[in-house]
Design brief:
418 residues; alpha/beta; Rossmann fold; 2 domains; 15 helices; 9 strands
Length: 418
């Protein structure tokens, strides 16, 4: 920061004094001064980070630490399916005026610019190139295809990684806390349980855990994890009531759900307790939510504690420079893309494709226009692409996934060629 200011001074001359600040500026007392959640947070006017880029020049006058307040917290609501996570998370966010980020769906993974990749399975020459979603997973397909679900789980990890990145960007640019469901940190629970039931090879699981470690070092840990739980028999019954097509699923049974719960209680939660607070609730015995939220208001989710030096450590920054530099890192598209990008390891054939498969895909992409579209761009019903930055200036615009019937026009030159 100091070096950047020195270079800036040589360019601006004496006027540099107006747009610089001491690199040792101590952050306000937000880190230790405002400790408990409140139902009436005092948020400052948010920075429009979706339309404007937070740059080094803006960091000189836009102080990140000044945005932090008692509700600048990341709260994770974790648990198995059908335990009421979504309803609980929404009410929690509404009560404390936090932002709720809903969980992703299979469409977020398999739909690109209005094209459902699952519809192209008939064009794929090998089973490895086909799409395997949760419906086919619970249907219990041929055991020889079980290992291909490892690739799907890695795609789910990527979706959760991007959601947590969005949560951090939101809190840094607005000061508003965020509530998430089943985060990128708990994704390993699913991977470990899948490995126990033959959906991951040992090499594939080892690569997944290495990729997880390399991807998560960028993130600051959450402040609170709320774990909603119930017996496996209860969850199995609820899932089959909600999704009748799972009635005869060979995968959905108490043994599989027990493995899930065991990984939560013996692997995930002990690891996260070193960095944040955790709460456990059996949904069959949950008290009134208003009383529960009153208990949350009394929790200190930021102060350092004796003997727990790693808890909330990521958020104990004393200088504005530290907050701004981290915020700039989260806004660096090149840096984020480098971390988020991954390629299947050659030693794990179930996670990687060979040269012939890659050549076929490059050839196929030339005849499927949706694969040529950059997902960072929007387009209107005439097929005219509009950069996301100009979204507010052009109307009407429609995202492909919202209106798959729109005319997509003449596709641009494919990114990959045969």
């Amino acid at each position: 920061m100091a070096l950047g200011q020195a270079r800036l001074c040589s360019l601006l001359g004496r006027s540099w004094v107006l747009c610089t600040r001491p690199s040792t500026l101590v952050a306000p007392g937000v880190v230790e001064g405002h400790k408990q959640l409140t139902t009436q947070p005092n948020y400052k006017k948010p920075f429009p980070y979706r339309r404007k880029k937070f740059s080094f020049m803006r960091s000189l006058i836009e102080y990140t630490s000044a945005r932090m307040n008692e509700n600048s917290r990341i709260i994770l609501v974790e648990g198995l399916p059908c335990v009421g996570k979504s309803e609980f998370a929404k009410k929690l966010a509404d009560n404390f005026k936090l932002k709720y980020i809903p969980p992703f769906t299979d469409d977020d993974v398999f739909v690109i610019c209005g094209l459902d990749k699952r519809e192209t399975d008939g064009l794929m020459p090998t089973e490895r190139l086909k799409c395997y979603d949760m419906d086919s997973f619970y249907a219990g397909l041929d055991p020889q295809k079980k290992l291909f679900y490892g690739n799907t789980q890695i795609n789910y990890f990527k979706q959760r990684w991007e959601q947590y990145l969005l949560a951090l960007r939101h809190i840094m640019n607005t000061g508003q806390g965020v509530v998430l469901e089943n985060s990128v940190y708990s994704d390993m629970v699913y991977a470990l349980n899948m490995a126990d039931h033959g959906y991951f090879t040992k090499k594939g699981l080892r690569w997944y855990m290495e990729h997880r470690e390399n991807s998560l070092y960028l993130f600051w840990k959450p402040h609170l994890i709320i774990h909603l739980d119930a017996p496996s028999s209860y969850i199995e019954k609820k899932m089959k009531e909600k999704y009748p097509k799972l009635q005869n699923s060979p995968v959905l049974n108490e043994a599989y759900l027990d493995g899930w719960r065991k990984k939560y209680n013996e692997v995930y939660l002990p690891e996260m307790r070193q960095h944040c607070d955790t709460l456990y609730y059996d949904i069959r015995e949950m008290e009134d939510l208003d009383l529960l939220f009153m208990d949350l208001e009394g929790m200190d989710l930021i102060s350092a504690r004796f003997g727990e030096s790693t808890k909330f450590a990521d958020w104990h920054k004393q200088k504005e420079e530290q907050w701004s530099m981290y915020r700039l890192t989260l806004e660096s598209e090149h840096y984020i893309q480098h971390i988020d990008d991954w390629h299947g390891p050659w030693e794990c054939p179930e996670l990687a494709m060979d040269g012939e498969e890659l050549t076929y895909l490059e050839y196929l992409f030339q005849f499927i226009p949706q694969y040529s579209y950059d997902p960072n761009y929007w387009y209107d019903k005439d097929g005219n692409f509009i950069p996301r930055e100009l979204l507010k200036e052009v109307s009407p615009v429609t995202l492909a996934s919202e209106d798959p019937t729109c005319n997509q026009g003449v596709p641009p030159t494919p990114k990959v060629t045969s």
